[in-house]
Amino acid sequence: MNTAAEGTRANFGLGTWPARRARITPERTALVEGGRALTYRDLADRTARLAGHLAAHGVGPGDRVAYLGVNAAATFETFFATWLLGAVAVPLNFRLSGPEIRSMLDDSGAAVLVHSPDADALLDSAAPLPDSLRLRIPVADIDAAVAAGPGLAGPPPVDLDDPAVLLYTSGTTGRPKAAVLSHGNLTWNTVNQLAHIDIRPDERALCISPLFHATGLGQITLPVFFKGGSVEPVAKFDAGAILGRIEEARITSFSAVPTMLQMMCEHPRWAEADLGSLTGVVYGGSPVRERVARAWLDRGVRLQQGYGMTEASPGVYMAPAAGAADHPVAVGVPHFFTDVAMLRDGRPAEPEGIPGELLVRGPHVFSGYWNRPEESAASFVDGWFRTGDLLTVAADGWASVTDRVKDMIISGGENVYPAEVEAVLLQLDGIANAAVVGVPDPRWGEVGAAYLQPREGAVLDEAAVRAHLAANLARFKIPKYVVFVTELPANATGKIRRVELRARAAAELADVEGTP
């Protein structure tokens, strides 16, 4: 945090020494929630008192403290209090089912659960909760805990290598697992972000992306706290309400996923919304459509796409502001303190303008998954993290995400990248969303199945879709099957749940007769 209590202890590897931390901007506003504002001094005091309350209940270094609920000031207070104790924060996805929440609580061995009222029904469906959970704190009780809290005298030393947070992966590829991010990982990601993004001490940022996701935590929020700006957590995304809040509070920045940007620029308020206060918007999590990027750029908003993953805290690539308008769908160049390499056909390779699997290393990259040593070891090769993503690097050094290695379809010996096919499909105005997955085929090994979600009021014709594909793609890339759906399955960050679609395609389409 930007300010901290005096008289804390520091560990420099030579024993424990008294230390005094600087109070940089204690009277600046740190958090805004409704009509309430907390200064950095207020936040530091409340954090220390909440940490004291947790310590009085036996929470100490290494213990896991889970949080279940929408974005709120209490979320940050819980995180900071947890970290003061050397404990580990475990933010949970409130959009999951009860059994999934129970599984994560059990997997993490959480000793404490802080939960907001919106999560009460979810917790009821998660019962019985694991035996490891010895304390539950409703968010409504945090004020009382803070008021009664004795503060924290002599917090334990916390090193950069100590774990700070367990972030569960989105689960689009199977059973979620927790990436262990250290304090050093979060710190170096913040430094990397600040090298690419101009964040000022008077920043007024919205925290829109959920805080159980690396995007919500690392892309804007922690960098803004680092610089002494203010953060306003948003409990629920509503495109019209966000546009109104930007005007009312003169918001200067936020981070989001592409789906949110699309919903905002398609909202009836978009044309008249005053976006003049915005100095920058960072987005990531999935590729953006060019028309969406152009809509924001045409309004004079500096739009920067970032690429990363939970395991990298999350930043790996970022589009520099100077070239973003000329590369509206590219993810830019590597962050300053990030090393990248390519793996092709199982061997190190030069970019060469063709897709290769991205390898990453750096001080922001995690060391492994929680209690999964074999999966952790398999995720690295010679010290490099295997992202599983296929990237293409152009001659000017700007990179674009091609696809996921596991999503690639091999049809008749030819590589078909679903993202390429989806990009062509989304050129049609009548298509709101598209996903292409592979389906087993006795003749070709695999063929494509395109699931298309029409835009509201649009009427899609399969023949017209196929004609458009034929005019823009090689024949072997054209999906064998075209399926129209009212909605595509997606997780909390807007990513398509391809595992679900692949299972559906295999069950419904694999035995259908037809010609590829």
What does this structure look like?
- This protein has 516 residues and is of the alpha/beta class.
- The protein has two domains: 28-333, Rossmann fold; 408-508, ANL, C-terminal domain (GMP Synthetase, Chain A, domain 3, 2-Layer Sandwich), CATH 3.30.300.30.
- The longest helix has 17 residues, at 40-56.
- The protein has a seven-stranded mixed beta sheet, sandwiched between helices. Strands 18, 19, 20, 21, 22 and 23 form a six-stranded antiparallel beta sheet that branches. The chain has a four-stranded parallel beta sheet with strand order 6-5-7-8, sandwiched between helices.
- It is globular.
- A hairpin with a 6-residue loop joins strand 15 and strand 16 (315-318).
- 28% of the residues lie in helices and 26% in strands.
Strand and helix layout:
Blueprint: E1 9-11, E2 16-18, E3 29-33, E4 36-39, H1 40-56, E5 64-68, H2 73-84, E6 88-92, H3 98-108, E7 112-115, H4 120-126, E8 135-138, H5 142-148, E9 163-168, E10 178-182, H6 183-196, E11 204-207, H7 214-227, E12 230-233, H8 239-249, E13 253-256, H9 258-265, E14 280-283, H10 290-298, E15 303-308, E16 315-318, E17 333-334, E18 339-344, E19 347-349, E20 356-361, H11 373-378, E21 380-381, E22 384-393, E23 399-404, E24 409-411, E25 414-416, H12 418-425, E26 431-441, E27 445-454, H13 462-472, E28 481-484, H14 498-508
Domain AMP-binding enzyme C-terminal: 420-495
Protein name: Long-chain fatty acid--CoA ligase
Domain AMP-dependent synthetase/ligase: 20-370
